[in-house]
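User: tokens in, sequence out, please.
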């Protein structure tokens, strides 16, 4: 048959398109060799560690921390007790524990406790002892950051105003200054008496000073338009930075700085502030206590102290143990564990800069840090709060232009305890580290040949690394970069060269990794005696006992495939296909939930595989003394032998338990009934009494509004959130004439938790809101340029303000026991 010219052109175009598509998705084998020297581990140089009355021992070597000679990867998460109502501390600690946090660091802000010279206040929301006792009650370790300087976006970085008016030089070995510091330490020591690790308490670590000889905060006593006057010693002002940065200058007073840190530690020890671990901020050539402190590092993808947005390097793999972030550093990195303990899980807003922290970045950064050799991770902040007003001043950092009250921070847990996307994303890594950190911590970093040449601007090349010991390990991949979009990675195959030959992941074909996703895949993994060649699925957790189950999850767009050693028997298969060959036993999973049992060396081990959407709803808990996995749309908090469930806005939701249980659950409020779910789970439907409260408002002017408040909360309601929907510059919230909350508009929802007002002895009947219009030339608009929906149409006007309304959302609560 003769083709016409038109048909020929159509066929040619189709062929070209097909070829291009095949070329885009054609397989590329990415190679990495682990035939490199393994990490040398030594500890004789370090004066760290200690034991408790139970005989449990904390030790530190140059690569990781151990407890009872078992390597651990601590997960620290900053929460400032003084910025949150003390009646809700216990709930927040439980939330952090439910999110897999193992250590809570907290600042002691000197100026909150000694605002007036000689008059210390350790009551109410300033009750440090109560907070640490609650950590102990919840089996949560704590690191107390005792200052004297803290930063923390608080007035003067925590130094009291009156200190500026005394005849002394701050942050150096001035004897009068040191006498004030020792008095502060004596007060802190009294609060912590009997609560140190050596006494059986939770205080496992102490941080001395903060960012010493690197950064400082501006003094709050300043004049509009005046250059900021920083709280650094006179000798260090020329090398003092605003915020976290790379320091390119050697400080001529470096040895004096190290000596000052030693003096501060000696003052703390003299007062009895003794812990197994001492930490110091080590980035940007900051001072540490050589061999007596762990220098922790930082990484902020969305800093507010820079002049513009830029791509950060914190999503590229490297060897962080040899080359810490914000290098150069003053210490020899190989002598200390790599512990990035100040990772920006959120960011503060200032009036001039309002970065938006993407929660998808949080777990991507942790993946990168772990794949780069980090053996500890920590967040600043993990839990937001509200800074209390002082007697004479607002205590947030006004000189830097922060909100006067709000320390919201866009964090995984918000200013009023809201649990957000980042919380759920991070907990998946935390569960993994808790159960498999012992394996990961001693593992060496291996990088592909092109790792050193990759730049943050490169959005097309695959980013990957390996942590290994012997011939086994974990493959790390990250496909996220801040302020841009990565290309979807299609048809990936990775060849890991080991001393026993190459491991191909997968053996045939490839897997995909979508923009924004990150994964950790095991290879040559001992799964309870069964040899797992590899899995294209990420480990989540494992149960205890002699016949454990292992849980994996599949990142979005990635198909789960398990390759076991040849001869491995697979039984009780649900939602998967099994292919046995002479080379391997291959299990390919289908759907959202798969379950199968592998049998090898006389052991049976169950494997549960779930998709990421379901994994994000998971919590590890104890049900009748057995480790279990709980799934729910609600936040699940372990409460003794039961589970406290918190659910925003929706009064009906499900709860599922794995493994199945025959126990009959009961609720303190509402009803619970068995329902159909995935065959591997026991599933239940929970219904609570519905609560509604309509927003009753009154307009005083375009800028000022009155909102009436509910006066009570029923037993099924844990909190009520007030949603303020406006587009403008700033919003201020007053109760009885006092500013109690404020907001710098950045397009994100403004929520205010009401329970602390409703439960107060004097219940306010209303809130007064005052708004200011956005200016067309506002400097912070460039932070919103990636989100044009957040920028209003000014038209011919130079300013814009629109208040769209107010609404209430209840947070429901019940306790389920089995």
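Assistant: Sequence out:
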């Amino acid at each position: 048959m003769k083709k016409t010219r038109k048909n020929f052109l159509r066929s040619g175009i189709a062929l070209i398109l097909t070829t291009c598509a095949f070329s885009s998705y054609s397989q590329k084998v990415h190679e990495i060799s682990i035939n490199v020297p393994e990490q040398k581990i030594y500890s004789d140089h370090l004066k760290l560690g200690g034991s408790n009355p139970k005989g449990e021992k904390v030790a530190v070597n140059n690569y990781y921390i151990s407890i009872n000679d078992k390597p651990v990867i601590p997960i620290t998460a900053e929460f400032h007790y003084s910025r949150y109502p003390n009646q809700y501390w216990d709930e927040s600690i439980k939330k952090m524990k439910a999110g897999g946090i193992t250590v809570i660091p907290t600042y002691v802000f000197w100026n909150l406790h000694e605002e007036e010279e000689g008059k210390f206040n350790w009551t109410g929301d300033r009750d440090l002892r109560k907070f640490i006792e609650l950590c102990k009650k919840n089996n949560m370790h704590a690191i107390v950051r005792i200052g004297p300087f803290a930063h923390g976006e608080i007035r003067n970085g925590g130094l009291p105003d009156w200190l500026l008016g005394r005849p002394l030089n701050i942050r150096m070995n001035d004897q009068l200054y040191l006498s004030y510091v020792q008095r502060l330490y004596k007060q802190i020591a009294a609060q912590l008496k009997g609560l140190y690790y050596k006494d059986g308490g939770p205080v496992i670590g102490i941080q001395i000073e903060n960012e010493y000889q690197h950064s400082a905060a501006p003094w709050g006593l300043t004049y509009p338009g005046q250059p900021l006057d920083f709280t650094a010693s006179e000798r260090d002002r020329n090398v003092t930075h605003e915020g976290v940065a790379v320091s390119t200058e050697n400080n001529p007073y470096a040895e004096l700085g190290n000596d000052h840190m030693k003096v501060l530690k000696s003052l703390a020890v003299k007062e009895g502030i003794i812990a197994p671990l001492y930490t110091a901020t080590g980035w940007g050539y900051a001072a540490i206590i050589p061999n007596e402190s762990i220098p922790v590092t930082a990484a902020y993808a969305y800093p507010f102290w820079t002049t513009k947005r830029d791509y950060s390097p914190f999503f590229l793999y490297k060897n962080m143990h040899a080359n810490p972030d914000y290098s150069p550093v003053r210490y020899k990195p190989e002598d200390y564990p790599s512990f990035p303990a100040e990772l920006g899980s959120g960011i503060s807003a200032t009036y001039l800069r309002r970065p938006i922290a993407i929660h998808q970045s949080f777990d991507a950064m942790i993946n990168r840090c772990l794949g780069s050799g980090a053996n500890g991770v920590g967040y600043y902040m993990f839990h937001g709060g509200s800074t209390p007003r002082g007697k004479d001043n607002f205590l947030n950092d006004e000189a830097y232009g922060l909100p006067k009250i709000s320390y919201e921070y866009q964090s995984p847990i918000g200013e009023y305890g809201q649990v957000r996307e980042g919380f759920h994303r991070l907990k998946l890594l935390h569960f993994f580290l808790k159960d498999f950190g012992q394996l990961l911590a001693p593992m060496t970093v291996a990088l592909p040949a092109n790792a050193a040449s990759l730049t943050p601007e490169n959005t097309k090349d695959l980013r990957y690394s390996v942590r290994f010991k012997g011939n086994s390990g974990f493959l790390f991949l990250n496909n996220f970069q801040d302020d841009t979009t990565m290309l979807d990675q299609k048809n990936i195959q990775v060849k890991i060269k080991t001393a026993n030959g190459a491991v191909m992941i997968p053996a045939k074909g490839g897997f995909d990794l979508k923009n924004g996703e990150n994964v950790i895949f095991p290879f040559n993994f001992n799964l309870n005696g069964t040899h797992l060649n590899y899995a294209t699925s990420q480990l989540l957790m494992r149960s205890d006992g002699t016949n454990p189950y292992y849980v994996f999850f599949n990142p979005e767009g990635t198909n789960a495939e398990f390759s076991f050693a040849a001869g491995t028997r697979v039984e009780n298969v649900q939602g998967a296909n099994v292919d046995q060959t002479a080379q391997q036993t291959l299990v390919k999973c289908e759907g959202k939930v798969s379950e199968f049992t592998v049998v090898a060396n006389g052991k049976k081990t169950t494997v549960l595989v779930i998709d990421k959407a379901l994994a994000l709803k998971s919590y590890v808990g104890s049900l009748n003394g057995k480790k279990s996995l709980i799934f729910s749309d609600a936040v699940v908090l372990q409460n003794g032998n039961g589970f406290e469930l918190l659910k925003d806005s929706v009064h009906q939701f499900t709860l599922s338990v794995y493994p199945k249980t025959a126990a009959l659950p009961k609720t303190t409020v509402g009803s619970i009934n068995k329902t159909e779910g995935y065959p591997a789970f026991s599933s239940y439907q929970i219904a609570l009494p519905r609560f509604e409260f309509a927003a009753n408002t009154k307009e005083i002017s375009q800028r000022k509004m009155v909102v009436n408040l509910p006066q009570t909360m029923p037993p099924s309601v844990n909190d009520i959130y007030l949603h303020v929907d406006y587009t403008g510059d700033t919003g201020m919230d007053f109760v009885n004439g006092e500013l109690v909350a404020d907001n710098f508009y950045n397009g994100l929802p403004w929520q205010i938790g009401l329970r602390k007002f409703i439960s107060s002895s004097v219940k306010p009947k209303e809130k007064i809101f005052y708004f200011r219009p956005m200016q067309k030339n506002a400097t912070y608009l460039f932070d919103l340029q990636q989100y044009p929906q957040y920028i209003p149409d000014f038209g011919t006007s130079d300013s814009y303000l629109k208040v769209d309304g107010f609404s209430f959302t209840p947070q429901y609560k019940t306790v389920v026991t089995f």
